[in-house]
Amino acid sequence: MAKQSGQIRALEFFSGIGLARAGMSAAGIKTVWANDIDEIKRRLYAAQWGEDDLAFGDVFDVDADTVPEADVAWASSPCTDLSLAGKRGGLADGPESRAFFGFVDVIEHMGNRSPRAVVLENVCGLSSSHEGSDFRTVVMEFNRLGYSVDAFELNARRWVPQSRPRLFIVGVKDPISGGEIDTSIRPDRVAWIHADPELKTHVTPVEKAPALLSSGFTDITEKLADSDLRWWDEKRCGAFIDSLSGIQRERFEHLRNANEMVARTAYRRTRAGKPVWEMREDDISGCLRTARGGSSKQAVVFIGKGKVRMRWMTGLEYARLQGANNFNLKGFKESQIQYAFGDAVAVPAVTWIMEQAVLPALKRG
Hints:
Blueprint: E1 9-13, H1 19-26, E2 30-36, H2 39-49, E3 54-56, E4 72-75, H3 90-93, H4 99-109, E5 117-123, H5 133-144, E6 148-155, E7 165-172, H6 188-191, H7 217-220, H8 234-243, H9 246-256, E8 262-271, E9 274-279, E10 298-304, E11 307-312, H10 315-321, H11 334-342, H12 347-363
Helix pairs in contact: 1-12, 10-11
């Protein structure tokens, strides 16, 4: 078992570019080992953190004996087979999401060196996948390894201007109980595990999570020069406007005629077999995604005072929306940055989970 004195140490499975590491670092936790299989993400991770602690390769090939002792293990396992945007093959049958069991295998084979806490972060679709049986499987696996479980549904919009709900399943060997179920962070689709007598769970006492932001996207947008080639030309902007529905067009004209310049995000959709644009009404970004199709990319519309300019969202904006304002992006293509940040975890959400649901249990006694 990891030492209970000194700095808390962490393992970061499915590390991606290290945003969980950033969030844990903000909570005073030091990451001592990480693992991922994606080459683009490996390069971004190395640019930010170096790669001395990074074990590059498939989680199923990780030798537990080579994993250092630590207090907590974080796992942002692949969500493709659990997301509503995916084919929903599920935890066991999905070719990517089954990687969760590779993580479990490593923790199990660490034996008495296994961390005192584990955290799984994934899309909220995990709670409903296979009518909740996949969620129950995760809890049961954590129980089998000796962890009592609590679970939270948090939207990154509590800290950054991006709507990004995610599920956080926290396993602790020596839990602190006695909390109350706040449905804003433990909705019924998550909280039901506490009523299942076959599952070992606890309700962690936590502080009230910050309220959802209602603005802030305009403030974090990147200010590009008028000559920047990323601005769309008149023809492309015209096609955007022409595709808007009646309601969308009314929203567009209202914003264009307003006395202030604001930024709004927009997605391409297919309606009645035709590609159209839909623009958000609020000053919040839609959920960032890994770019695997046209609808996954967000455009940014700068509009107001009778003017309109449009472009794709930039890589720097992706980073800011994930709470990674100081991340090293030099030398990487926009598409690489968007790909890597699109399926990452928001930094401040990680910090909240650590400070509220993990560290109090690790520091007790």
